Amino acid sequence: MIAALPLPYLLIATCLAGAAVVIASIRATRLADIIADRTRMGEALIGGLILGGATSIAGVIVSVDAAASGDASYAFSNAVGGIAAQTLFLALADLLHKRANLEHAAAEPANLFQAVMLVILLSIPFAAMAGPDMAYFGVHPASILLFLAYLYGVRLSSEVRERPMWEAVDTDETRADEPEDPAEARRSARKPALAFIGLVLVMGAGGWVIGQSGQALIEEYGLASSLVGALGTAVITSLPELVTTLVAVRRGALQLAVGGIIGGNTFDTLFLVGADIAYRDGSIYHAVEPNDLYWLATGLMMTGILLAGLIVRQRQGPGRIGMESVLMMAVYALALGVEVLG
């Protein structure tokens, strides 16, 4: 039904769906901060697992819907393109935090571990694409490994949060993860959790509309799948991560901001699991295009730079942002130029 709409109405539907997702994500960020305090799970863990997963729902639906329709490149590029875009958003948030480099101020072992986990998860699709073309019941073994690695990583992230084996050096700019209101932290998390679930449903519905609009642009107007996926729907469905990161930084929830991006990116690797299951013509890893591999490499490179920034913890860099933020913006700009001009 959406695919049959004229181009102006198609763009309007996409904008409205994107706006609904963004507005829901703003509210979800505030609720995630409350849930983190009331459950005592911490901003980094809630940001990485709950908020990161919730704001990725729209992207999951886009990739799975695209794979089910047989467009492997669209499904894959939407997933890996979103990882690159969301990492860029963290560099943009660094511009907003004027006091010090964001990666310095948000020192947290759980964020470091999740960044390492993301590098590992992104390497699995690389191995699958370079290996033999195989699929059992239409699913590549790498997808099963990716899912199991994610679950094990989530468990280890919780252990790192609860029983860290090392801790970051505190400085004047380090922001501690503590409840703003001790009395608020003693209240039940049930009501905000239910409201959070409702917002997730709104974001999921918006993702379906965005995915259908992207398919229409590919089928009806002849646009490249990798272009629409990596620079179209991936960016639109990643807008919640941008909004939630900026809102979290303004609220002073720096661990929530960094954890939300890294955790959202780790969750985004599961897009490939869902897409591989939905794609019925064999392994999705061997049905993609070279441009899709390029965006996977871009996301991996940007994650490595971010991880280095979290370890180095540079206080000030050019323009009061960290050097890792400058490098991440440069890498994304280069990838954008190659995609558009290439």
Which tags fit this structure?
single chain; 342 residues; mainly alpha; 14 helices; 75% helix; globular; transmembrane helix; membrane; transmembrane; NaCa_Exmemb; K/Na/Ca-exchanger
Give a structural overview.
The chain has 342 residues and is mainly α. It has one domain (2-160, 190-341): NCX, central ion-binding region (A middle domain of Talin 1). It has helices spanning 7-39, 43-54, 57-68, 72-96, 102-105, 109-130, 141-162, 182-185, 190-221, 225-250, 254-268, 270-278, 290-312, 323-341. InterPro entries: K/Na/Ca-exchanger (IPR004481), NaCa_Exmemb (IPR004837), NCX_ion-bd_dom_sf (IPR044880).
Which SSEs are present, and which pair or pack?
Layout lengths: L6 H33 L3 H12 L2 H12 L3 H25 L5 H4 L3 H22 L10 H22 L19 H4 L4 H32 L3 H26 L3 H15 L1 H9 L11 H23 L10 H19 L1
Helix pairs in contact: 1-2, 1-9, 1-10, 2-11, 3-4, 3-9, 3-12, 4-10, 4-11, 4-13, 4-14, 6-7, 6-11, 6-13, 7-12, 9-10, 10-11, 13-14
Could you write a compact summary of the structure shown?
Helices cover 75% and strands 0% of the residues. With 342 residues, it is mostly helical.
